[in-house]
Amino acid sequence: MTNGWIDIKNTDMMLIMGGNPAENHPCGFKWPVEAKLHRNAKMIVVDPRFTRTATQADLFLQIRAGTDIAFLGGLINYAIENNRIAKDYLINYTNAAFVVKDGFKLPEDGLFSGFDAARTTYDKSTWNYEAGGKIEGANAATAASSQSNPQAAASNGGGKDSEKSGESGGHQAAGGPGATGQGGPKPPPMLPPNVAYDLSLQHPRSVFQLLKQQYSRYTPEMVERITGIPKDQFLKAADLFTSIRKDGNMKKAGTIIYAVGWTQHTFGTQIIRTAAILQLLLGNVGRAGGGVNALRGHSNIQGATDMGGVFDIFPGYLKPGQPTDTDLAGYLKRTTPTTSKPNEWDSYNYWSNTPKFMVSFLKSLYGDSASKENDYNYHYLPKIDRKFDWTNMWDEMYQGKVKGLFAFGMNGVAIGPNSRKNIEALKKADFLVVCDLYPEETAEFWNAPGTTKDQMKQTKTTVYRLPGAGFAEKDGTFVNSARWLQWKYVAVPPPGDAKVDQEILARIFLKVKELYQKEGGKYPDPIVNLAWAYTTPENPSLAEVAKEINGKALADLTLDTQPGVTIKSGQQLPGFAWLKDDGTTACGNWLYSGSWTEAGAQMQRRGTEDPSGLGIFPNWGYSWPANRRVMYNRASCDLNGKPWDSERRQIWWNEAQQKWVGNDVPDFKVDSKPTDHMGPFIMNPEGVGRIFGPLAAFADGPFPEHYEPVESPIANPLHPQQSNNPVAKKFTSDMDKLGTVEQGFNVVCTTYRLTEHYHYWTKNNPMNVQLVPEPFVEVPAKLADQMGITGGEKLKISSARGTYIGKAMVTKRIKPMMIDGKETYQIGIPIHWGYRGIAEDEGKTGLTPANQLSPAAIDPNAYTPEFKGFLVKIEKA
Description:
Elements: E1 13-17, H1 21-24, H2 30-39, E2 42-47, E3 59-62, H3 68-81, H4 87-93, E4 115-116, E5 121-122, H5 137-146, H6 207-216, H7 220-227, H8 231-242, E6 254-258, H9 260-263, H10 268-281, E7 292-294, H11 301-306, H12 328-335, H13 354-366, H14 390-398, E8 404-408, H15 412-415, H16 419-427, E9 431-436, H17 453-458, E10 462-467, E11 476-479, E12 484-488, H18 501-519, H19 525-528, H20 542-550, E13 552-553, E14 557-558, E15 566-567, E16 585-586, E17 596-597, E18 600-601, E19 622-623, E20 651-654, E21 659-662, E22 729-730, E23 747-752, H21 766-771, E24 776-780, H22 781-787, E25 794-798, E26 803-811, E27 817-819, E28 822-830, E29 857-858, E30 870-876
Parallel strand pairs: 1-2, 1-6, 2-3, 6-7, 8-9, 9-10, 23-28, 24-26
Antiparallel strand pairs: 4-5, 11-12, 12-19, 13-16, 14-15, 17-18, 20-21, 22-29, 23-30, 25-26, 25-30, 27-28
Helix pairs in contact: 3-7, 3-8, 3-10, 7-8, 14-16
């Protein structure tokens, strides 16, 4: 979330898509309701189903699953055509005025410039800014008249300047972490340090003009053809959402709220990008009641990501090294951005502190063994030479390349995608270690329905089951969607032989270390030199770990901006501003620095004071970064530092004190005067919000484009010859089949969660099972009538990969849709069942995980599988 749960109460307008917070986040949904009650805020809900969230909407639109970019692109087109944009914000706080290199091509045929069909990837050299500084109005007009169509000089290859793209300084566009941003043997293109820009926004290759052209194709008629939303309904939604900028009004704010209904597509990252572009266009980012707000599906998903719980980031979103990064200096040069902006503007470019963050991280890992002379043991860290994401990992296990798996609280078989393939993959592994509360599908893959005794005997995988402690049986922090670190305490001790996670992991680590010390090995150094100075090494206190993550001084420290203040060696750091790149600080995650200081555990605070009334609650828990609640909050003020809305003042420039002050912590250089023209988006090298995502920022294009899901009832109306995302990965094993309408898979299927169940755990709890005891399928009433299906009748849902058995819930909540002139149906399937559970559901469930249906095809940026919008057929069981 750029903002936070409570901040939603401050909004004037809500667009809720790809999420159903009334049912999946019922406590958090209080805040949208508060906005409706106390601010008369309007709510637009767009969803494949009429959900309980939709019952509270001022306007509900049913959309075909997987067509969100078409809808959002239509909103962008409408806002531009009707001049409902935040023009001052757009010019000064985004890259709308930046000029893009000659040779860049928009995807009118479905492909951006630089596509390499043989490698299914892009040469991104034309996805860059032009160098050269300010372009005056006359020159912009001349450029516009000489090139009325900015595509005229473009092709799928590089532009005329593409060979020069590496000459200037700059940075690889904060390129995608890990494998995503790899540049190959030659140096990657760099952003120019002095960007060409046109404040009139008239240059044909300005980001704004390219944006306008890109979404001019997303007309109300095209939106209807793709999404199934009737033109008149779309226009109502577009008029309502953009009404906050009617007549140039900047006082109101609107928010966009989403969840995994957006992320779980082969273009999921770009859906979120489209929302961000729309919010930048309307001037809603950084504002109280604004932002782009992700609803996390678990209590600590945010924290797991912050701490590097995926393969392509380290804690604090630091990038892993690549094989070409042979030393720390080379790694830091590649990953540390230098500014890329108009010379007349300023950029804080906060990622320029990467050396401080990285060296402090290495010191936290390796302690005294990490020194300047040995590159702080940088060479101990793994280098990313391929993609180790979830779906690739299971595919490599299926190929026999991955020999073992540790699954902690992660039910890989049920989670999928393509659960049957995951079962077969585990049969090829040497060992499987499962730490969980219950025996679940992954731990019993060998006993999946349909497995014969002989097949069980042929499975050689050794399975180790470790009983783990539940969330109420251990302390530590949860980090919620709003980025709040909140400490929780043990409610009850773990039962029987169950142990807390850190004890299990510590015991395994210490035993492995002991083996390395006794027997040696190919490369024992990263293990034997790992810092492990906990009071109880075999069961570290999570309070000690939290303090380690916060960071401490390893020598006496002073700071020029805080004269007279000294942090003594061994003391906890007050915040990440104190981090050094000389080995005198250790910090496990720079974003969390400030969460456990010498003043104590800030995440344990429970102060209920809210002086501003905006729901900031500065003394409750700790919100990263630096305890600020709304990110990019400099953008809540105009160029002179005055709030756009004086009634919702977050921060402002105090002329007398010559610094930024406010109710929230300024997300800005506090002494940067408004006249410095420093951009509010301090993590970007440009200092401004990115409407155009340059160079390696995104694998599939600098602007979002609508692509069809890998299984679709129609060809893409925008470009039928290029229906799908050209760089999305589709797996090709003998179990990775894709279905077509011609094969009888003519119904769009989406999956979702229920209020009464929590993923795959609660089918082990009698109370939850009694509430919703068996799987079902939501079937449109008209489709049920055509097929002679009655409510409660058992159905067999099939995809090209597997089947799912559930009872029919005949409903009017999902209606037939006209998609490109064809009547099309959608169904909905809750995910919570499988082939493990308790006696209460025996005989009531078909023992078929929902993800036996879903395809193994992934987003090329976040590697999320396409759990939404695939094709199935319906039969009576």
